[in-house]
Specification:
single chain, alpha/beta, Rossmann fold, 33% helix, binds adenosine-5'-triphosphate, binds magnesium ion, ATP binding, translocase
Length: 256
C-alpha cells in the first residue's frame, strides 16, 4: 500500500479548452484556458451561473466528454481505491434501476465486478449504513423519497470505492430542508471516507456550506475559473454565523 501524499495533486488541469460545433457550423469555445489543481481529499466547489460550462468541465474530468485542448491529469490517491471516479447525477431517477431494491441497486456494481457474495453483502451493508439507509434496504426506488434516492445513488457509487466523487448539482431537485440534511450528511461521509470531492452548484449558500475551496467560473462562452476562495470555516457550518455571512458577501459580489 502506498501512503497517501496529503495535499499532493489529485487532478491537474492546465490550459484546457472545449469547443462545440454549433448548428451554424461555427465553433464555440464553451471552456477556454481552464487551470485548476485539486488536492487529494479536498472538497472543491465549482460555482457558476447556469450555462457557463460547469457540467461540461465535470464531464471532461469524469471521462464522459473529451477535451479539445490542454492538459488533464488524474493521479490515483493510493491502491486502496478500486476505481478512479464516481459520478453522482442531479436526478437519481435516471440512474437507479426501478426493478431492483435499494440493496440490489447498491450491490449492482459489485456484482458486475464479480465480488464474492459474502464480501459483497458486507460492503453493501456498510455503505447502506453510511448513507443512512438502514431499514430501507428492501424498498424499491418508487417507495422512497427524492432525498433517499440520492442517498442510494451515493451509496452505490461509494460501494465501488472511487478515489474521486464528481457531483453535478446532486441536491438541486430536493426541497430546501432535505437539501440541508443531505449537505450535512455529505460532509459527514466525506470526513469518514477521505474522498476527493468536486461538487458543482450554482447556489452560493450550498457552496459555502460544503466547500474547502470554491472556484468561480465566468459567464460563457470561453468560460474559465476566474476566482478562487479558501473557506476557512469549521464544519458543520452555520448559515447564520457572521463569518459565513462575510464569505457570502464576498462570493455574491461576483454575481451582482
Ligand atoms: N453537446 C453539446 N453541443 C453543443 N453545445 C453544448 C453541448 N453541451 C453543452 N453545450 C453548451 O455548453 C454550454 C455550457 O453547458 P453546461 O451544461 O456545461 O453548463 P452548466 O454550467 O452546467 O449549466 P447549468 O447550471 O444550467 O447546468 C451551454 O451553452 C450549452 O448550450
Ligand atoms: Mg449543468
Amino acid at each position: 500500500m502506498t501512503v497517501i501524499q496529503e495535499k499532493s495533486p489529485s487532478i491537474v488541469i492546465r490550459g484546457m479548452s472545449k469547443t462545440f460545433l454549433e448548428d451554424t457550423s461555427e465553433t464555440v469555445y464553451v471552456l477556454k484556458d481552464v487551470d485548476l489543481t485539486i488536492k487529494h481529499g479536498e472538497f472543491y466547489i465549482l460555482l457558476g451561473p447556469s450555462g457557463c460550462g460547469k457540467s461540461t468541465l465535470l464531464n471532461i474530468i469524469g471521462g464522459f466528454l473529451d477535451k479539445t485542448d490542454g492538459q488533464l491529469d488524474i493521479h490515483r490517491a493510493n491502491s486502496n481505491h478500486d476505481s478512479n471516479r464516481g459520478f453522482i447525477f442531479q436526478s437519481a431517477d435516471s440512474v437507479l434501476f426501478p426493478w431492483l431494491t435499494v440493496e440490489e441497486n447498491v450491490e449492482f456494481g459489485l456484482k458486475m465486478k464479480k465480488i464474492p457474495l459474502a464480501e459483497r453483502k458486507r460492503i453493501v451493508q456498510s455503505y447502506i449504513e453510511l448513507a443512512g439507509l438502514s431499514g430501507h434496504h428492501h424498498k424499491f426506488p418508487s417507495e422512497i423519497s427524492g432525498g433517499m434516492k440520492q442517498r442510494v445513488q451515493l451509496a452505490r457509487v461509494l460501494a465501488n470505492n472511487p478515489d474521486i466523487l464528481l457531483m453535478d448539482e446532486p441536491f438541486g431537485a430536493l426541497d430546501a430542508m432535505t437539501r440541508r440534511t443531505m449537505q450535512k450528511e455529505l460532509i459527514r461521509i466525506w470526513q469518514e471516507t477521505n474522498k476527493t470531492v468536486i461538487f458543482v452548484t450554482h447556489d452560493i449558500q450550498e457552496a459555502l456550506m460544503l466547500g474547502q475551496r470554491i472556484g468561480i467560473m465566468s459567464v460563457g462562452p470561453s468560460s474559465k475559473i476566474t476566482s478562487m476562495y479558501e473557506i476557512d470555516l469549521p464544519y458543520p457550518r452555520k448559515i447564520t454565523s457572521p463569518d459565513f455571512n462575510h464569505y457570502y458577501e464576498i462570493v455574491q459580489s461576483h454575481f451582482d
